[in-house]
Design a protein that fits this description.
The complex is a heterodimer of chains A (536) and B (458).
Chain A: H1 2-12, H2 14-29, E1 32-36, H3 40-50, E2 56-60, H4 67-72, H5 85-94, E3 101-105, H6 109-115, E4 125-129, H7 133-146, E5 150-156, E6 159-165, E7 169-171, H8 190-197, H9 206-210, H10 214-228, H11 237-249, H12 263-275, H13 283-290, H14 292-295, H15 303-316, H16 336-367, H17 382-387, E8 393-395, H18 400-404, H19 411-417, H20 425-441, H21 451-469, H22 478-487, H23 493-512, E9 521-525, E10 530-534
Parallel strand pairs in A: 1-2, 1-4, 2-3, 4-5
Antiparallel strand pairs in A: 5-6, 6-9, 7-8, 9-10
Chain B: H1 2-7, H2 13-20, H3 37-43, H4 59-66, E1 69-73, H5 77-88, E2 93-97, H6 122-133, E3 138-142, H7 146-155, E4 161-164, H8 169-181, E5 185-186, E6 189-190, E7 198-204, E8 207-213, H9 236-241, H10 246-261, H11 275-291, H12 299-306, H13 314-327, E9 328-329, E10 332-333, E11 337-341, E12 347-351, E13 367-371, H14 377-386, E14 396-401, E15 404-409, H15 414-420, E16 438-443, E17 446-456
Helix pairs in contact in B: 2-4, 5-13, 10-11, 10-12, 11-12
Classes of the chains: A alpha/beta (536), B alpha/beta (458).
Pfam families (chain B): E2_bind, ThiF
Keywords (chain B): ATP-binding, Ligase, Nucleotide-binding, Signal, Ubl conjugation pathway
Domain E2 binding (chain B): 369-457
Chain lengths: 536, 458
Amino acid sequence: IMADQKTNKEQRYDRQLRLWGDHGQEALENAHTCLLNATATGTEILKNLILPGIGAFTIVDGHRVTGEDVGNNFFLSSDSIGKNRAQAATEFLQELNSDVSGNFVEESPDKLLDNDPEFFHRFSLVIGVQLPESTCLRLGSVLWSAGVPFLVCRTYGLVGYMRLVVKEHTVVESHPDNALEDLRLDQPFTELKNHISTYDLDSMEKKDHSHTPWIVVVAKYLENWCNEHDLQVPKNYKEKEAFRQLIREGIRKNESGAPEEEENFDEAIKNVNTALNPTKISSAVDDIFNSEQCENITSQTAAFWLMARGVRDFVQNEGNGSLPVRGTIPDMIADSDKFISLQNVYREKALQDAAVVAKHIQSHLQAVGKVTYPFNAGGLPVSPLCKNAAFLRVVRCRSLAEEYSVDSFHKDTITSCMDSPDSEMVLYLMLRAVDRFYQQHSRYPGVYNYQVEEDISTLKLCVNSLLQEYSLNVNVKDDYVHEFCRYGAAEPHTVASFLGGAAAQEAIKLITHQFVPFNNTFIYNAMAQTSTTFQL
Amino acid sequence: MPELISLSLSLSLSLSLSIHSMLVDGGTTSDWQGRWDHVKKFLERAGPFTHPDFEPNTESLQFLLDTCKILVVGAGGLGCELLKDLALSGFRHIHVVDMDTIDVSNLNRQFLFRPQDVGRPKAEVAADFINRRVPGCRTCSLFASGDRLIFFFSLNTEFHIIVCGLDSVIARRWINGMLLSLLVYEDGVLNTSSIIPLIDGGTEGFKGNARVILPGMTACIDCTLELYPPQINFPMCTIASMPRLPEHCIEYVRILQWPKDKPFGDGVGLDGDDPKHIQWVFQRSLERAAQFNITGVTYRLTQGVVKRIIPAVASTNAVIAVLYICADSAYGTLNNYLVFNDVDGLYTYTFEAEKKENCSACSQVPQDMHFSPSATLQEVLNYLTDSTSLQMKSPDITTTLDGRNKTLYLQTIASIEERTRPNLGRTLKELGLVDGQELAVADVTTPQTVLFKLSFTS
C-alpha cells in the first residue's frame, strides 16, 4: 500500500516534481503555514499551496461569514453565512487534497497576539491577508524576533500588494534562467589540458574531424593563439573575429578546394563569444563569501553558511580563485565516444572538487564540535552545492519597523519612483493613506455609495498628513485619491486570484529554498496590467 | 476601436438597456444579500481611469449575469482557473469545450477535478463543479474535437468573447482561423461587429503569457508564429548512430525500436499514458544508453520525453488566467501581449505584437512564394513545413491547370497520396506550373485554405 501511495503521489505531483524535485516536494510536505483571514485572497493563496501538497495549514480568523464574503470566495457557500469564516473555509479547502492537514482557530489575530504570541512560532511561514496596519506591525515584530518568515498580502480594489518580511533567506538551487556554461577554456585545468592534447586535428580522418566536440576545437585553436599572443586569450571584437577566422580556415576542404560541411566547426565559431568569457565569480557570490556568517563559523551556524564557507575555502586554496568545476557541458555535434569522454573529464573534475569542498566543510564541523554533516536548509549533499556554487543567493528583507520608521524609511526610493507620478509607487502611498484613514475612522473610505464623494477630501487629508510626516515632497494626483475611494475596499475575485498565484509561488520558494523570492514589496496594478517590485 | 470595447466587458448604457428586454429568467433567484457587492463597485461607480466609453450603471451587472456569452476553449489548468474567475465575476452563460479526459497528473492544479473523476471528460466535470459551487452559473460543456467541434462552431457564433486555455499551437491556430473566417468584409472594409475578440495565452512552469487578439485588426496567432518555436526534434543521425544524451536514447527507442519490435502487438502504437508502454521504453532506453556509456536515463525522463511533458503548477495558471480576464476591461484593452515570469522575483512585461502585412492567416492577400522552375514540388513542400512563419504539418497542395482543379500532392488520404507522390520528384516546370501560378494549400493548422502566388526566380 505504501508503494501504491508513493506512485500515486508521484503521478499526481509529476508536473511539479519536474520543477522542484523530490527534495523540494519533501520540504513542501513538511511545511505548516498559517493564514490570517480567510478572505478570497487568503483562500486563493491556500488553494495554490494545498493543490501541490503542502503538509499542513492553519487558518486564523475571528470573522463571521457574510453574504459579501461568499460572493467573491470560491471556498465558501451561502450555507456558510453566519458561521466562523476560518471553519467554513477550512472545510472547502481541505476537500481539495486529502494529503494535506487543515486546521482552524476561531480567533482574531489581535487576540492571539494579546494572549499567546508564541502560537505563531510553530509555523514555517505566516501569511497575513487584509490585515489592518496595527495588526500587521504587531505581528511583524513578533515574527521578526522569532525568525518566522512573514508574507503580507492585500487586495484593495484593482491593486494587489505583497510584502515579504524575512531576515535572511538562503538559496542554493536558484535555477537561473540563462546560466553561462562553466567550460574553463580560458584557464583549462590539468585533466582538461591532458584530454585536449590527445587530439591532433590535422592528422585526423575526416569523419573524426567532423565529429570532434566544438569545445575541443576551440581549446586547440586557443592553444595556438595563446602561444602567439603572449598567453593572452582573444579579448576584443577584432581579436575574437580573427580567432573565429582561424577556426574557419581549419574546416577541411574537398578536392575542389571548397569547404566541407563540418557542423562541429560551425558550432565552435558560433560559441567563440561565450566560450572565451573569463571564468570569474559573480558579485552576488562574492558578497556571500564576505558575509559575516561565512567568516565566523560557530556551532550555531546554519548549513548554508557552512557550505558557503567550504566553497570559499576551496576558492582560496585548491581552486586558485575559481569555484569548484560545475561538471556539465551542453550537447554538441560529436560522436558518442568523444562526447562522453569529454563530458567525463568535466564530471570527474567536478567530483574531485566537490570532495575537497566536503573536506573543508568537515574540518569546520570538527572545529566547532559537530560530528555529523547537517542536512537542513534544503537538505542538500555537497554535489548539488558545487553544481550551483556560481548561483548561490541570499535574500535579506528589511523589517516592517524599518520600512515604517521615519528614521529609516527609504525616502530616496519613494521620491525617485514618484518622478513618474503614475508609477506603482503612488499605489503604495495610497495603501498607506487608506490605512491611516482606517486608523482614524475605523473604516475604509467609500465602502458605501453615499460615502464615496465625501470621503475623497478626508482621504486626501490622510495622504497629505502621510507625506508630511515622512517629509516626502512628491505629488499624489487627485485621480488616485478618487480611485481609492471608488474601490471602497472591495476585493474583486480576479485580483485576489492573481495574488493567490503570485503569493503561493513566493511561499513555495521560501519553503523549498529553491528559486529566488522577491525583495521586498510587489505591487500589481490590475488597471494597467503592470507590476513592479520595490525594496522598502 | 471604442465600439469593440463595448462588445466585451466594458459596457455602454444603450447596449445593456436593449438587452434588458431580453432577460433570461431565473437570473436573480439564486442571489443572496451582498453577493455582488465586490463586483458592483466596479460596474456601478464612476472612476477617473476607466475608458471614456464606459458608463457605470446598475444594468451592467444584469448584462453580465444574463446576456454576456463567453466560450472557454480548454478545461485544463487555465480552463479551470478561467471558469472560476468568470463565474465569480458575474458571468453565467459560459460554454466550455475540451476534448480530453481527466488524468491523475492533472490533479495538482486542475482543481475542479478529484481522484474519482479520473477518466471522465474534463469539460463535463468542470461545468458540473462550477455550476454546483457558484449558484446561478450556467456553464454548458462540450466534450468534442474535430468535426463535432466544427459543427458546434457553425451553430454558435454569438459569443461576445472567446478565451483559450489550450496546450497546442495547432489548436490555437485552428481557433484563430475559425474566427478569421467569420469576419465580414464590405467592399474590402472590415465590419467590426463581426469581430469576436480572442484572448489567448499559455503557461509553462513559472512562465506564462496572455494576449488579446481582435481578429482582422490586431496581430493574430499566425502573425506571431515565431513566438511559438517548433518542438525540439533531434537530428536522425544523432538518434540513430551517435547518441550523447539520455534523451537521444529514449528517442531512439520511441522512433526506431518500437516500430521494429512491436512489443505489444502489430499496429499497437506507443501510448504515453500507458505505464506498461513507458516501462518498456525505459528499459530499452537503459540498454541503449549502456551501449554508449551514457548515464541519466530515468523513468521520469522517459515519460517526459515520450509525452513531451511540460512542467506545470497551479500558481502560474492562476496568475495568467486573471490576466486574461483583465485583458479586456473597463480600463481598456491590453495592448496586446503580456509575459510573466516568477523564477527570480516576479516580472511582467507588455509589448505590442504587430500584425503581419502578409500573414498567411489574416492578411487576405495571397502569400508570395519564390522558386526556380527547376525546383521540385518536394522543395515547395519542405518550405511549407519548415518555414517558421508557416509551420504546416501535412499540407495538401492543389492548383488550377487548363481551367481544371488539379491536386498536386495530398497526404491526408492514402490512395491519393500514393497517386500524387511521384509529383514530389517532378520540377515545377514539369508539372505545368507557370510564373504567377496560384496554389491553394490546405492544412490542419488552418480551417481556411491558404493561397500562394508562385513567382519564378531565374
